[in-house]
Amino acid sequence: MIESIPPFAYVLLAAFAVAFLPRLPGHIVAAASTAAVGVQALLLENGLYIDTQFLGFDVVFLNVDDPARLVAVAVSILATAAVVYAYETEATPVQTAFAMSYVASTVGAVFAGDWLTLLFFWELMAVTSTLLVWYYGGEAVRAGYRYALYHGTGGTILLAAVVVHFVEIGSFRYDAATGIAEAAVPLAAIGIGINCGFIFLHSWLPDTYPRPHVAASVFLSVFTTKIAAYAMYRAFPEGALWLAYLGGAMAVYGAFFALLQYDPRRLLSYHIQAQIGYILAGIGLGTEKAIAGGLAHLFNNILFKALLFMAVGVVVYRTGEENIKKLGGLWNVMPLAFVGYLLGAVSITAVPGTNGFVSKGMILDEAHHIHNFEFGIEGFAYGDALWWLLLLGAVGTFMSFIKLGYYMFFHGDNTVEPDDATLGQTAAMFTVGGACLLFGLMPGLLFELLPFTDYLAAELHPYSTGHLAESAVLLFVGFAGFFSLKGPLARIAWLPDVDRIVFPAGFYLGRWLTWGVTELWAAVDRVVMATAGASMRVGADPGGYAYRTAERVPGVDVSELPEGSEEGTVRLRASAGTSVFLVTLALFVGLSALVLL
């Protein structure tokens, strides 16, 4: 039976159940459905299970392979914890129903076996996540509108890529080609890249995720961007050097702007971009170990990023404050939230013993050992350009989470004494945090889920002396860097991102476009109505209009017939030149019509 039911179906049914059942039973049903996704993924062997027709094309609604299983297990763990967290954070049943519909579309995209099915659920993810943002109201409405514009644009571009792919390959299915068709590469890169948060296409990330309910942010923070990275793997399964370098640049860019933020959820949103950069770097390098590392980091990022949003969400939920400069000293009054934050922070910064240490180490290894960039002067030097970008991003990540933890939990004395995390919030955070430690301390469990590791296991040594030393150096540099640069960073916190230009430009461009379309439509309407009115008047008195028109033609004389002629008749006299002109014009029009027809 598990081979014939696509997981998105029962998760979607659970979304309806949450909306209509009493609050506690509805959330229990929702958590059970998300947990079942991971169980089903682990029980099914690799293969195509629901191979059918959709819109007249061959599609696969249930495709199981190593990458799909990996992402499904992570989605299952996180979504189950997020449902518990939502219940304990007073999320309404309708909000959780929107979140569950978002999870259902995410699961559909994960198990898709072809581009058409992926695109279908891709667009459903955009719709359901926008509804989840809008539901909160207030500032989230305008942010959600911008979010919808970005994802609508990205989906349209991806649709064009999928059409081009089908024209070139003749099939939507993944197994019909290795990745996306070459002609569709630019379109696929941009369409997927918007959801990945490519530099200059990322403004929706820090704009949207800090706005809705804190429980909604937990769902939003992981699914859209991680499924985009997963789709990038489907498009470029053999890697692409430009993608690796773009990932390195994203790691630095996201970490830098995160360092300037004092809104905790905005800071975390920039780190979504930075961590996606590491994932794309691994996928882009294209070796089996690098791809396995990129997918492992995707898995881990789903866990520790959501954990950080949970911990920060508890602080916001309990204090009502979203400026970390106004917090401080909370570690002794909110120890559970502090431990949850600490587990997430050490995981994202790749401290030994955590899952982030394992996956980030795999990516850095490959960036260092298999891709050296020659600087162009013969015999001058070789530099690990990508490796340095990723290391710089890692230092920025250390500094960011030292800053966030310092201001929230240690800076100054707490001026309020809020309640700590609830039992359910604690259970959700510690479940996800425990998974971060489990996959870090027992990396073999993670390796079993990864592709290629059957024969790469002998090459994977996460706790080698070199890895441990590298981590110690990064940790030291991160601490020293933050406390030495804390003042300068505060003074440049005003530094604007591209949203200061993109959002106003989009607003005025939209306004001018709307005005132009409206005025053009009004002008066309005026012309059509005037033409229709004139036609009706001519039809009512065709003879009169004909003679009045003739009066205006040079050389034509319109005069009354002699007395005794029929009333109302007139006589037209035209000069010889006018007559020749009119006959010639009539012949020209007639011949032109014959030629054109």
Structure description:
By secondary structure, this protein is mainly α. It folds into three domains: 237 residues, no CATH class; 254 residues, no CATH class; 48 residues, no CATH class. The protein is built from 22 helices and six strands. The strands form three sheets. A two-stranded antiparallel ribbon has the order 1-2. The protein has a two-stranded antiparallel ribbon with strand order 3-4. Strand 3 and strand 4 form a beta hairpin. The two termini are 63 Å apart. The relative contact order is 0.08.
> Which band does the percent of strand residues land in?
5-15%
Number of helices: 22
Structural class: mainly alpha
Structural domain count = 3
Low-confidence stretches: 373-383
Q: What is the mean pLDDT?
A: 89
Helical amount: over 70%
Computed CA radius of gyration, to the nearest angstrom? 32 Å
In the sheet with the most strands, the strands line up as: 1-2
Written as H for each helix and E for each strand, in order along the chain, the element string is HHEEHHHHHHHHHHHHEEHHHHHHHEEH
Instruction: Please state the overall shape, judged from the principal axes of the Cα atoms.
Output: elongated
Q: The biggest beta sheet, please?
A: 2 strands, antiparallel
Oligomer: single chain
Strand runs, count? 6
Q: Note the gap between the termini.
A: 63 Å
